[in-house]
């Protein structure tokens, strides 16, 4: 690639000066400068020399070349400007860029709703970020397997059974005398969840029913299957609305048969110990769990930088989420043997995954060469900076949020007097939701402003879609043309540099596990295209050569916008 060519030129020139070092070339935002190299600062520090003199010596030894003009700017920056031939080469590289196929297999786990509960906005970020990362990994050439991994083996479904039993309808639903649907479950669960906090006997009955279906006792196990089937069907409908899809629709129930196996592994390797009747695994490393002096013998022992042990079995022998997660890693390695397992959840689960990963490594459940990643995301807040809630303080349903955004999009389409159908409304609303979500750094909280994010102007998904639609419209009027990369204006060059930065952003996104850089690069591309479009006539251009150059730039821009939007799971409509 052309950046690597510049790095090679600098390295060779440095060697002629007797200097060894790594020269890293990056994009520059300085005027009259396309790339820059800041390596002279660190190299000069090692050599105990003057960085400005070092930079001037290196640039002074560079031989004339076809692609770059090198110069030095204080205090010791090496500025690099593309020649006309260099710009054409960069454009050609953008057109022909192909990511090589990787050998590594990444298994990505995201979504993770608990069955029996209506999905709320807390699930949205997991779907959006996970789907985009999955698509990014595929674009970069990795083999990818995705799993939604439902919470389908715990108490929520037991609570629904207990509520239906209390209302006298459980047997009728079991026998199919009454038809089970998602509305029945969505009505039963909130009531059951509230009652369990008020009625101990009801809670104990829900726990008993949960244990019955976990032990596959009929007819409760068969009814659990019905509850799961209805919930999964609803989850698939919501995922389709968000343009999210999975290779696997598994859940905790798929890991349950391996729980005894993994507990025995910890026991056999003497990694588990009993604590107050429960079975725990110590996962603290040096520097953690340092005992603090007690003020009295009866005081509870406290620790500096505490990392508590991981509980893998309750005192009553019951299963825990952590044990299920360990069993899941065990069976995923047994069936798929991925090089990486990547989990995406709310950031508040960070410590739990640290514990689980350490336990799996200690027990050999995760092999030494396997990477275990956890990405924790921040919360989506309202304009008041607090968690996005309903007026009565409850969680906003995910479907309710989608409806809210679609209603706002419909309002704006009507204001613009745009012809639309329900699918166009959905596509635009989806882009507003996803771009707003993904343009923020993944671990940070952010404010969801419906008016701002549904705007057809500014840094929004609809603005990106509108830019692409405008290009489609122009190209349809231009008709046939022969590609021509002889770009000549500053506005055209700005678009080419934005295209290059967009391609560069994918690898950065991979390293950061955040799509914010891709969104920023995509927005900068749309802005620079708009500047070019407003400055230069395209359809009415009389010079055939210039018209082919401009049309080539349009086609290249559209291809890269569509490619980036595909990574973000944003669909480009035919018109807006």
Task: Outline the structure in words.
With 576 residues, the protein is α/β, with parallel strands linked by helices. It is 52% helix and 11% strand. It is built from 21 helices and 15 strands. A four-stranded antiparallel beta sheet has the order 1-2-4-3. Strands 6-5-12-13 form a four-stranded parallel beta sheet, with helices on both faces. A three-stranded antiparallel beta sheet has the order 7-8-11. It is globular and about 85 Å long.
Mean pLDDT across all residues, rounded?
A: 92
Number of helices: 21
Radius of gyration: 29 Å
What is the β-strand count? Answer: 15
Sheet bearing the most strands, described? Answer: 4 strands, antiparallel
Q: Proportion of β residues? A: 5-15%
Tertiary shape: globular
Q: How many angstroms separate the termini?
A: 36 Å
Helix content: 40-55%
Spans of at least 5 consecutive residues with low confidence: none
Structural class: alpha/beta
What's the arrangement of strands in the largest beta sheet?
Answer: 1-2-4-3
Brief sketch in words of this structure:
This protein is α/β, with parallel strands linked by helices and 576 residues long. It has 21 helices and 15 strands.
Blueprint (SSEs and pairs):
Blueprint: H1 2-16, E1 25-27, E2 35-37, H2 39-47, H3 51-60, E3 68-73, E4 77-82, H4 84-96, E5 105-109, H5 124-139, E6 143-147, H6 155-166, H7 170-174, H8 182-196, H9 200-214, H10 220-241, H11 252-255, H12 259-268, E7 272-275, E8 278-281, E9 290-291, E10 303-304, E11 310-313, H13 321-335, E12 340-346, H14 350-363, E13 371-377, E14 380-381, H15 398-415, H16 422-438, E15 446-447, H17 450-453, H18 461-478, H19 490-512, H20 516-535, H21 544-567
Parallel strand pairs: 5-6, 5-12, 12-13, 14-15
Antiparallel strand pairs: 1-2, 2-4, 3-4, 7-8, 8-11, 9-10
Helix pairs in contact: 2-3, 4-19, 6-8, 6-9, 9-10, 12-13, 13-14, 15-16, 18-20, 18-21, 19-20, 19-21, 20-21
């Amino acid at each position: 690639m052309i950046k690597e060519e510049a790095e090679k030129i600098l390295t060779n020139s440095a060697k002629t000066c007797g200097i060894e070092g790594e020269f890293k070339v990056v994009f520059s935002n300085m005027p009259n400068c396309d790339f820059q190299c800041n390596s002279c600062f660190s190299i000069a520090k090692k050599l105990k020399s003057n960085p400005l003199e070092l930079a001037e010596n290196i640039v002074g030894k560079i031989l004339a070349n076809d692609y770059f003009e090198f110069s030095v700017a204080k205090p010791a920056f090496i500025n690099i400007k593309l020649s006309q031939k260099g710009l054409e080469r960069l454009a050609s590289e953008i057109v022909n860029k192909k990511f090589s196929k990787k050998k590594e297999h990444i298994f990505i786990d995201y979504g993770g709703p608990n069955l029996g509960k209506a999905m709320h906005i807390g699930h949205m970020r997991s779907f959006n970020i996970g789907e985009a990362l999955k698509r990014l990994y595929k674009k970069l050439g990795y083999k990818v397997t995705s799993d939604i991994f439902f919470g389908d083996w715990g108490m929520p479904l037991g609570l629904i059974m207990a509520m239906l039993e209390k209302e006298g309808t459980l047997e009728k639903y079991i026998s199919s005398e009454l038809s089970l649907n998602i509305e029945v479950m969505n009505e039963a669960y909130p009531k059951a969840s509230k009652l369990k906090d008020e009625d101990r006997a009801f809670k104990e009955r829900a726990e008993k029913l949960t244990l019955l279906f976990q032990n596959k006792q009929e007819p409760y196990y068969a009814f659990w299957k019905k509850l799961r089937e209805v919930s999964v069907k609803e989850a698939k409908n919501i995922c389709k609305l968000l343009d999210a899809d999975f290779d696997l629709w598994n859940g905790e129930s798929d890991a349950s048969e391996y729980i005894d196996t993994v507990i025995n592994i910890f026991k056999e390797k003497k990694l588990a110990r009993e604590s107050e009747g429960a079975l725990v695994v110590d996962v603290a490393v040096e520097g953690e769990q340092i005992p603090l002096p007690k003020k009295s013998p009866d005081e509870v022992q406290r620790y500096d930088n505490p990392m508590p042990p991981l509980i893998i079995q309750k005192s009553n022998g019951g299963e825990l989420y952590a044990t299920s997660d360990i069993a899941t890693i065990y069976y995923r390695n047994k069936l798929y043997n991925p090089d990486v397992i990547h989990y995406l959840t709310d950031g508040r689960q960070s410590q739990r995954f640290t514990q689980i990963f350490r336990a799996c490594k200690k027990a050999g459940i995760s092999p030494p060469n396997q990477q275990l990643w956890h990405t924790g995301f921040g919360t989506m807040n309202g304009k008041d900076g607090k968690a996005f809630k309903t007026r009565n303080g409850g969680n906003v349903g995910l479907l309710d949020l989608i409806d809210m955004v679609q209603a706002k999009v419909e309002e704006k389409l009507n204001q613009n007097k745009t012809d639309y159908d329900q699918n166009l409304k959905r596509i635009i609303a989806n882009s507003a939701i996803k771009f707003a979500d993904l343009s923020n750094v993944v671990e940070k909280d952010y404010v969801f402003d419906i008016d701002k994010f549904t705007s057809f102007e500014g840094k929004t998904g609809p603005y990106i879609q509108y830019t692409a639609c405008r290009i489609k419209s122009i190209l349809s009027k231009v008709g046939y043309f022969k590609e021509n990369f002889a770009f000549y204006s500053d506005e055209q060059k700005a678009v080419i540099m934005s295209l290059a930065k967009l391609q560069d952003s994918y690898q950065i996104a991979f390293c950061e596990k955040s799509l914010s850089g891709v969104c920023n690069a995509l927005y900068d591309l749309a802005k620079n295209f708009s500047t070019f479009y407003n400055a230069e006539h395209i359809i009415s251009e009389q010079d055939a050569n210039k018209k082919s150059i401009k049309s080539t730039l349009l086609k290249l821009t559209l291809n890269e916008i569509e490619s980036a939007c595909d990574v973000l799971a944003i669909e480009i409509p035919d018109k807006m």
